[in-house]
Amino acid sequence: MVTEHPDYEQEKERLTYTKHYMEEILTAAEGKHEDFKGNIKEAFENLDYLDSSLSYINILVNAKFIEMNTADIEHLKRVESKPYFARIDFKNKESGEHDSYYIGKVSLFRKDTQESLIVDWRSPVANLYYDGRLGEVEYETEDGEVAGNLTLKRQYVIEEGKLEEIRDIDITTRDELLQDSLSGTADNRLNEIVSTIQAEQNEVIRSDLSKPVIVQGVAGSGKTTIALHRISMFIYTFAENTSPEEMMILAPNDLFIDYISQALPDLGVDQIKQTTFTEYVRKSIGKKVKIVHPDQKFLQILEHETEEELLEWASHFKGTFSFKTLIDRYLADVEKTYRVNDDFKVEGFTIYKAKNVNRLFFEDYHYLPLENRVKKVKNVLQANFKKKKKEMIKVIEQKFEDRFDQLYYSMKQTEERRKRVVHLNDQKEKKIDRIKKTTNKVVTEYMKQYPKVDVFQAYHELMSEKDQLLHYSNGELTKQQAAYLAETFQERRKKNQYELEDLAPLLYIHTQLKGMKKKWQAKNVVIDEAQDYSVFQFYALKQAAGTDLFTLLGDLSQGIHAYRGIESWQEVMDEVFPKASYRTLKKSYRTTVEVMNLANDLLGVHLPHLDSAEPVVRHGSKPKFLPLQKEADAPALITSEIQSIMEKGMKSIALLTKTMKEAKELAELMKATSYECQLLEETQQLTQGKIAIVPSYLAKGLEFDAVILVNAKDHYTDHEIDIKLLYVAMTRPLHYLSMIGPSEDSFQLNPLNRTLFQTEQG
Ligand SMILES: Nc1ncnc2c1ncn2[C@@H]1O[C@H](COP(=O)(O)OP(=O)(O)OP(=O)(O)O)[C@@H](O)[C@H]1O
Fold first, then answer.
1. Ligand 1 near 203 CB (within 6 A)
2. Which of 37, 158, 336, 582 is most buried (most C-beta within 10 Å)?
3. What is the ipTM of this complex?
4. How high is the pLDDT of residue 617?
5. Atom 18 (ligand 1): residue with closest C-alpha?
């Protein structure tokens, strides 16, 4: 009973006091809101269309106030029913002061007394809650380390503004709040984690924000959670000079973005750019390139079709640093075509020698992308031309003066001389006039000798010619490989298509040739499911974003796109992020011990080199295998499973198939049942309350209370990609896993430890 806690009364009072103050603030803020609105209305009424600047400023200022005020009100309202979730008591060693800090999602100060009512979870002192054990501790602040004694660490359960529970944590007490949180259902889970972030996760979230971080974390270790919290941390820490729009999170598909976007407002980071790699490339290079659906190739590989070896090789090669180097060699030759031979001359005057123009281009502005260099050269030529115009006129005048003098000396004053003088004068005037009238067009004319910068043309020229590829590969490609790359590229070009692997080179070439607009650069980039990226993708992104402040989170065991993704994190550090710190997360928070044990055994038996996960102790029932006699029986079996799952109070349920084809067929079959199902394709959003049908490769990153693997036709083989796919599928449920298929073999269960799952008979 919460009322039995010795500090209950005191804590209840504190909560009432805090809530009361919040109400006051909210009422005041809403009042202010009305004032601002009133001001705007007044400004509109007084709008003088001849001299409106003052009223406009008034409107703008008040609109800005409304915007700020609305954000503050929104944040406060969101936490009103749960102002804080923990408290720490800390005795400062130096000053001897002993203070209590209440930790919540947003900070709150009493404006009148400056008393801190709630400290933000991202503040330095709050680190003690996540990291510190009771006793001697220290925490880092901007002004250095603060040492002292942590005398209390307390958690609260507050529901609808009511204090429901108080838990004091010392070294031995297990973190009950975490256990509670993990046993909850899948809806709303991402939102509430801030109070139960674990020390190893906290370390990643707070790890040096001025350095890249690479996180290898097992399935369910909180990578997505950490990604979002680290962004929030970055925005909080650099609030003064970073706006959320300058942060970018890259997720594997729109389905996933929809899933994470629910958690963003709560963390105060809803304004950040959330996109997929494909969308980022399309938008930043300003062309909606048509991509062959990546699943096509994935399925070809998954179904082990012919030519698989070269297909996999080509996908992999296009993501390597070697390919980047090949492109660099080619671009160096493209650059050479920008060397000019003609001096820049106007009316016989040399304004800029070719040699100097080339020096500008190849030396002074070498650090810029080609297109920007061309612009710079143009600017310099224009400025020089403008400056030299007067000088040129003077020189012409002087030249003609000399010629007049010559005439006067050499001829007598005759009609003939007069005619010549008039003619000369005419010539002079015309020449001067021409110079005066010469506009910057001469520069534009001169600039025409530069080739047009065209990213696509450059890439096409390289990729369509096997001899070029061979030449620039410096002996790294065989004739057969170069021919394969060129042929497949040309084939796709006929249909005006590219493949996913072409995006990194296109992005890279774009950045090298044209540079990246400010809008598409970023101060910090977070990539979830980073194991599916290639080294070249990371490199191209780093160049385009203009920063190396990347947080990469991924799991090599879930690398189902390994044919085009990375093989180890080491290569990413070696080639792209040498300053990165590397961390691993081994604990899994999503799944029960029983489910995780089976998934671990699968990896252990088939891919023993990969990390297995250590589940946080939370038990459930053993995964179940249910034999399927014939496909038509599937709906009945599934229906009875769903029913029993629902009876246990679980809400979100997914049926995972191996392929999209089977998912579609299953969706058709399920129409005959009384359950409403939703076939999830890449661009769709999850609808709450419906049973999701998802091919397992699209379920990556998602989670459900219960998962039923359905496999009537497309069985999982012991091929590496199948095992990884099966591992992904098995690690999606929070509480319950069952498998429906013709035989245990269809889930590769045979070689596994039989005590780890139950069959229908028990
Ligand atoms: N500290 C925590 N407190 C409470 N719940 C947590 C904590 N860390 C993770 N979780 C929960 O564990 C589940 C898995 O987290 P998350 O999806 O972030 O893991 P992941 O590493 O991205 O997984 P995967 O690689 O399998 O997609 C989520 O339900 C999340 O809410």
1. no
2. 158
3. 0.98
4. 77
5. 222
